[in-house]
Write a structure and sequence with these properties.
The chain is an alpha+beta fold. It is built from 4 helices and 6 strands, in the order βαββαβββαα. The chain has one domain. It has a 6-stranded antiparallel beta sheet with strand order 1-6-5-4-2-3. β5 and β6 form a beta hairpin. The radius of gyration is 14 Å and the shape is globular.
Length: about 140
């Protein structure tokens, strides 16, 4: 497991998207074009999992709940699958940790990149990413 602590000028919504984008981007290096599947999100109030065969997408109420957890200093936990890689991540206040099932190198790359991106006023995020994880973008 790799962990980073940071001081970020970003609002909670941008932190969330930055974290998810760079998990996706760094896992794609080894997993290629495999789908980015959010398997579970746990906030202080709720646990979100996909229904049946549907994909879990970040709806506005889910994002509001995630942001509320972040802003009230409660951890938000994610379980993500991309190809054969299974990733567990936690965003808590000004700390982020990640654990991968197969590649510790991916953990290192995610933490290293987030150390840079979370400290920027305008982090690098591909515009095509948000529509893939939110239903109405």
């Amino acid at each position: 497991m790799k962990k980073i602590e940071f001081e970020s000028p970003l609002d909670s919504r941008k932190k969330l998207m930055t974290v998810l984008f760079w998990i996706n981007r760094k896992a794609a290096r080894t997993e290629g074009c495999a789908p980015f599947l959010i398997k579970k999100i746990e906030t202080k109030d709720k646990t979100y999992i996909p229904e049946g065969t549907k994909l879990l997408k970040l709806t506005d109420p889910m994002i509001d709940d995630i942001i509320d957890s972040i802003e009230t200093k409660n951890p938000v936990k994610f379980e993500i699958q991309m190809g054969s890689e299974y990733i567990k991540a936690e965003l808590h206040e000004d700390a982020f940790c990640v654990k991968t099932e197969h590649s510790g190198e991916i953990e290192e790359e995610i933490v290293e990149k987030l150390g840079t991106e979370l400290n920027k006023k305008f982090p690098s995020i591909c515009e095509s990413f948000k529509p893939r994880v939110t239903p109405n973008s």
